Each structure stands twice: as structure tokens, then as C-alpha cells.
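quick one, 388 residues, struct below
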Amino acid sequence: MTTSLPDVILTIDTGTSQSKVFWKCWSQGNVELLLMGSELLEISPHDLIDTGLAGGRPENDAFIELANGKVYVLGMKAQQMRGKPPTGLSKYEFAAYKALAIIGAIAETANLPERFTIALAALLPYKEYQDRKAFHELLSQNLVSFNFRGRRYSISPLVLDVKPEGAGLAQSRRNDAPQSFNHRNILVTMIGQRDASLLPFKQGTPQLGHGTRLGFEQLIEEIANRASLNLDTKDWGRLTEYIFQAQQNPILLERIARMVVTEAEIGRKVEQLQDAIAQSCSRYSRDLFDWIKSSLGQDLYEFDEVIISGGTSLYLKAQLEDFFAQYALEPSWAMNLQDQIYRSLTTPIDPVLACRVSDAFGVFKLLGGKVSRLEGVTNASWGITISR
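---
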């Protein structure tokens, strides 16, 4: 008896800043990276505006309709519409609906039929990972029948895995050196847009993880408060990008200032922003490190290695390296995974983005190996290295 293989394999990291997705049609084609904005709005079908124009990528014009008649717009399309995020939805529900839209966008991009099969692995922050069963059930129920941009799909998941953030980094480290992994104490640290997660391993065995809402969002909110930034929704979205990039390109602070003051006041506002960033980073780092110390306690002295990833960790790279140096730990930044991403994608990718998506890529490799074993498929059939 043979086992069917999926039409599409994909890994979804439904992050707060944006959803990051690696996917591939199993039988042919290249590994692709899809990015979708994080916004999600519930609207009436009458609110959908037909501009009469065609073109663009489906992930930028994404809306889904569920079997119960509810309609959600996502990402760039949601940014263009008035409305508020639906109230009463839990985080796992947001993640499930984003996954539906991502699958629909892939179906359109790959010109797939209305019925097809998938192998999917989803990454959730450690706190949300506790709701993995509810996420799994909700997504499975809605895959049976949903509409994406007016076309009905019915999708069968042959594999549907849910992993905690950091799982891709840990598995990649295990695959690179299994004996070393199984004889060392390793800490995987993920610091993203909204959440921070800690995944400890002792001699290869996973320990109780920790998660908290202490990501870049919290830092940005404090900067905005200290600098008295009164921004509308669209400019608030730009603020995160500008603050992050201003670390290397300080001229972007002038763009932020122009959002809120007249030309004559830009110099004063830039100085206020510089002070707000310095003070906010100091406080945020202190809060983050206090949480790490209180979560891990004396275990911090027992780790042999720490693996760090996530966009916020890059912003605080120097502070993190100094912090872990107190415990004789030299951080690893998963450069091996980033190198594999560069080799696997046919289009160039920014190094910052490569770091942010490395965990998802690690899980993508893991999922590919799992699907390969369904029928003993060779590694070459889907174009990236799979560590066994």
C-alpha cells in the first residue's frame, strides 16, 4: 500500500509583524518565500470594493470567506480598508485564518485546482503553542470548505504539524551535530515582534519552555510614549520599520519627525526621538534580561550554548551578547540556516529577513524530510538539503 504525497508543502510562521512562509509544489518548482502583512479585519461582503483593476500578487489582495459566511481581509488589503480587528478572537483563531489566506494565495500563484492536498507545519510562539490542539482543529475544519478571493477550495491536509517557535533552530542544530546536541545543554532564544520564547534542552532532551509578550511591539510603544508620537494607523505601521532601520540609517528619524511636526521643529523632534530610543532600549533590555533570569534561574549557568534568532534580537545584538557573556555563553546566530536559505531561493534576500525566517526554514526542512519518508522520496526531488 502506497501513501499519497502532497501537492504542496509549506511552513507558516504567522508572526505579528508579518506572516513568513516557505512553500513548494512537491513534484516540481523551486522553494518560494511568501510574506503577508499581519493585519486581519472582519468585514461585510458589501464592503469589498471592486476597483476594476487586475494584477498584483494574491497575498497582497487577500480575503477569505468561511463556511459560516464570515469574511476577513488580510495583509495589504486590510491596510487599505477602514475597520478594526475582530473582537473576541483568540490568537490561535487569528493564526488559523491567516493560514487559510496563505494557502489560498499559494493556490492562485501555483494555479492549483479547487481540490488539492498539503503538508503543513505551523510555528506558534511558546505561549500560543499551548493552544495548538484548538488551532489544529479550527484549521482542519475550515480547510474542508472556504473561499479565497471568490473561489471555493476544499483542501486535504496529509500532514498538519504545529511547532513552538525555536523548533526549526533546535532541529537544525541537532541535525548538524547529533552527538554534540545530545551531550550539551542548549538554550534556544527567540525574540520577535510581539513575543519572546525560551526553549531549553538538556543533553538533547527538551525541557519546559517559557514565553512572554515582550517583543519589539513593547519597545516601539515605549518609544512612541516617550517621544510623544501621535500617529494614525498607517504611520504607526511605518514607525516599526523606521525605528529598526534607523539603527543603521539615522536619517530615518527625520522621516518619523515629519509625521508629527512641522519642518521648523524637525531638529528638536529628532533629538527627542534619539533620547526616547536610548532610554526605551535600556528599560526594555533590563525587562527582557530580568525575565530570562527569573524564568531560567540557576539553569543559566548550566548551558553550554545559546542559539538566538528573531528580528528584535538583531536590534539588540550587542546587548544580548553582553548579557550571555556573563554566563560564559557565546551566542550562535544560526548562520548555517541562513546560508541554506540563500542557496535555496532563486531571488536575493536581505540578511535581516534571512535571520527572521531562519526558524521557519528549519521547520520547512524538517517537514520535507517527514514527507520524503512517506514513500522514500529522494532529497533531490524537492531541491533543498534535508538532514536526516
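The CA atoms of residues 169 and 247 lie 26 Å apart.
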